């Protein structure tokens, strides 16, 4: 009997899940809330609610050899580091080659994923969906793969920035940034030195009077091709102490006047609004999953979270391996360890992470 698998999300991880389900003889049905595949890499001029959003110039920071799916190389004529539009082209090629699109229900939101009353025996799930016309449907699935990523809910810690309510310039999360032209000859402050913060600061520096890049702890910058430092109108600053009108005061006592723009490149939070907290709980932007995939204490291993990691490199190969493993578990070809063993593994990883990353 074919086992039906719900795949939530049609981004890169969702595509890998569909493909792996088909490889294992499973029947995937993917629910994608937008009108297209691609997830994070699908550029839109205006950010959509509850969806990832990128700026126009985004180029992936891992090479094509390290980001492609294992059974579908990226075309040789594509550049090593690809613009987001080429990444979308690659995803479409992948989906077309393996005929994945016919398994995707576009413009369909997942409202609820709930264990059936006989879950301890069947491992099945009730899945409620809603299409763009407001039509709701209920479905029964033997397993569920959740691939909604972790770049949908912007983190705006305004409570950590005294006086932000008095700031008379404009501020927004990096999720809302698209192009620099609007800020030509202005002064800008970018908060955060992650991937987006660094990118946006450099791009703004090409058109603004001055950019100030604020970071709590600094960062090590690894040069890609040269030890020669590029000249930019970007000045490093420590954490912000307070805002007042058009001015920004930093922890070192320096004050910048006449600031027009503040971009909060302060990351994201993630959640599973369609899942009960007793299935997966999220606290302080963390959740406990065995090998970052399986909730350890479920009675049946029929729920997998795919792509909820922040790797040193591209997510695509990791999601593919996670999806391969999960589908083998769903079929019963691979068994998970005991609950005790999985919980010990989770706790061990938590302790290692706490030692590796100093939080303050």
Automatic annotation (TrEMBL):
Q: What class of enzyme is it?
A: oxidoreductase
Where does this one sit in the cell? Endoplasmic reticulum membrane
Which domain of life does the protein's organism represent?
Answer: Eukaryota
Reaction catalysed by this chain?
hypotaurine + NADH + O2 + H(+) = taurine + NAD(+) + H2O; trimethylamine + NADPH + O2 = trimethylamine N-oxide + NADP(+) + H2O; hypotaurine + NADPH + O2 + H(+) = taurine + NADP(+) + H2O; N,N-dimethylaniline + NADPH + O2 + H(+) = N,N-dimethylaniline N-oxide + NADP(+) + H2O
Gene Ontology MF annotations: flavin adenine dinucleotide binding; hypotaurine monooxygenase activity; N,N-dimethylaniline monooxygenase activity; NADP binding; trimethylamine monooxygenase activity
For this UniProt record, give its keywords in alphabetical order, as a comma-separated list: Endoplasmic reticulum, FAD, Flavoprotein, Membrane, Monooxygenase, NADP, Oxidoreductase, Transmembrane, Transmembrane helix
Q: How does it sit in the membrane?
A: Single-pass membrane protein
Looking up InterPro entries in the UniProt record yields: FAD/NAD-bd_sf, Flavin_mOase, Flavin_mOase-like, FMO-like
Record's GO cellular component terms: endoplasmic reticulum membrane
One Pfam family named in its UniProt record:
FMO-like
Official protein name in the record: Flavin-containing monooxygenase
Protein's organism: Takifugu rubripes (Japanese pufferfish)
């Amino acid at each position: 009997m074919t086992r039906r698998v719900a795949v939530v999300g049609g981004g890169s991880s969702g595509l890998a899940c569909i493909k792996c389900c088909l490889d294992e003889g499973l029947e995937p049905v993917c629910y994608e809330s937008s009108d297209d595949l691609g997830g994070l890499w699908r550029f839109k001029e205006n950010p959509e609610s509850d969806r990832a959003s990128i700026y126009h110039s985004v180029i992936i920071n891992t090479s094509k050899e390290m980001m492609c799916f294992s059974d579908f190389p990226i075309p040789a004529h594509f550049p090593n580091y690809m613009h987001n539009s080429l990444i979308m082209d690659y995803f479409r090629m992948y989906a077309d080659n393996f005929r994945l699109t016919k398994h995707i229900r576009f413009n369909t939101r997942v409202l609820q994923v709930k264990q059936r009353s006989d879950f301890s025996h069947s491992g099945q799930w009730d899945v409620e969906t809603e299409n763009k016309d407001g039509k709701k449907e209920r479905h029964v699935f033997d397993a569920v793969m959740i691939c909604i990523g972790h770049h949908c809910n912007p983190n705006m810690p305004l409570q950590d920035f005294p006086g932000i309510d008095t700031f008379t310039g404009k501020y927004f999360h990096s999720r809302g940034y698209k192009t620099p032209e609007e800020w030509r000859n202005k002064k800008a402050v970018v908060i955060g030195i992650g991937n987006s913060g660094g990118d946006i600061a450099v791009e703004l520096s090409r058109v603004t009077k001055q950019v100030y890049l604020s970071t709590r702890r600094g960062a090590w910058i690894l040069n890609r091709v040269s030890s020669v430092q590029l000249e930019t109108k970007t000045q490093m600053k420590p954490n912000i102490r307070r805002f007042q009108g058009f001015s920004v005061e930093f922890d070192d006592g320096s004050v910048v006047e006449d600031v027009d723009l503040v971009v909060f490149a302060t990351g994201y939070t993630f959640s599973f609004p369609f899942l009960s907290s007793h299935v997966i709980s999220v606290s302080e932007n963390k959740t406990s999953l065995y090998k970052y995939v399986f909730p350890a204490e479920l009675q049946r291993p029929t729920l997998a979270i795919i792509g909820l990691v922040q790797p040193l490199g591209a997510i695509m190969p990791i999601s593919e391996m996670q999806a391969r493993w999960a589908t083998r578990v769903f079929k019963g070809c691979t068994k998970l360890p005991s609950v005790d063993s999985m919980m010990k593994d989770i706790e061990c990883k938590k302790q290692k992470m706490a030692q590796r990353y100093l939080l303050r």
